[in-house]
Write a structure and sequence with these properties.
about 120 residues; mainly alpha; two-stranded antiparallel ribbon; 4 helices; about 45% helix
Length: about 120
């Protein structure tokens, strides 16, 4: 469903003799822009979940992860993104409105993930 296929969104796999296009390109949603504000590159129906945190926990179950592994993944995600909201705000080539929107989204999503860790 990604409509902006250009050379920056293409990845190659393999070596010189078996080079091929990656089956996924530009998988990261561009949430700072309202028309691209998608939760995930993996399509899902959010109506079946109380919130996005519930969705990601269920995604872990779909990949046959146990509760301990799901919690570890959530913890790793929270550690890796701990300063993301602040880092977004200092991007000078992104318009302020988009920086604020993306920072707010990051903070809200982190809260939903933290709820699952107790």
């Amino acid at each position: 469903g990604n409509g902006d296929l250009h050379l920056d969104n293409i990845a190659l796999l393999g070596g010189v003799t078996d080079c091929r296009l990656a089956p996924v390109y530009d998988p990261s949603p561009m949430r700072a822009w309202p028309r691209h504000n998608l939760l995930s590159a993996i399509p899902f129906d959010p109506a079946g979940y109380a919130n996005h945190g519930d969705y990601f926990v269920e995604l872990g179950h779909a990949f046959d992860l146990n509760e301990t592994k799901i919690s570890q993944c959530l913890e790793q995600t929270l550690v890796a993104t701990a300063d993301y909201a602040e880092r977004v705000l200092i991007l000078d080539r992104v318009p302020e409105a988009q920086r604020l929107q993306l920072s707010d989204i990051a903070i809200a999503e982190r809260v939903l993930l933290e709820e699952h860790l107790g």
